[in-house]
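Sample pair:
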Amino acid sequence: MSYAQFGTIQADDYNALVGANPGGTANVLNTVWATGSSGAGYGQTAEANVAVGDTVTATKWANLITKTSNSAAHQSSSITSVTAPSAGNTITYNANVVTNLQTIYTNRRNAVSQSATSSNTATYASTWLNAITFTHTVSFANGDAARYFFNSGGQLAITCAHPVGTGINLLLNNLASNVGTVVLSSPITGAASIAGTSYNGVTKVGGGGSTPTISTNSGYYNWTTANANVFYQTASTGPVGYLSTNINIFVKTNGTQGSNGDTGSIVTIYTVWDEIPNGLTVSTGSATTVTIRPPETTYIANTWGTPTVGGTVTGT
């Protein structure tokens, strides 16, 4: 039997709406709300299944409805209100229970807002005339913590800066500004709406200058232990012959750590500033910042912990 009008509600009916945990079945509660699998799952406390032959209580139905509603609020999804049944009352069929579950699964990557950020800025304290590489490492407690972070709307943002000057220094000042903010999110296809903005896996926000090369579908679930070139932009103004000077961003992870479809618990971001051709002396102060943007915690609990970010820079 399945959940339907005029039918007798059985444990199997309820369990089909709640789903297993962990599990990746579409359009069920636990896939989105609990552990889930790969790009689904916020890591919240799973709703337990009902044993065959046991009563499906009003409390169990209320849990299903409340957790569906909280998921929708986290996503800023529009769903139809369903009144939770009270103990002792008959539980009646409501088709909106099913359609609401479909909605929160479809919109699982969206997030209404984010929490307070943390960041690390690495600054090159010497002059240089070839290339410099900024290395930032973002660490999570484990693979599932990384999954919950990105699945719930967490992001990593990269910005660059260089002091104003003349010649090659003006070129790099403009290039760093033109890069804008490069945002790394979860999608490997399509987009997620986070705090009212649409993001691909890699998205440039703001900036300007020459048209960058962006690997838009290289979100968290496409990262591996090999460096992926996710962003590349060349200079648009500056000394004649130096407009091939560029800022290049690469991302890799430490590889799969758990059994639920993560792609790593340590994310390494390399931001390479390359002067082409070499030879002009660049002043001190070139800087790259990586900012952690955690998910909101009004409608869901923090299951991703407190990721940390550190940064270094080397060059010639």
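Helices lie at 11-18, 29-33, 58-75, 96-106, 143-151, 168-179.
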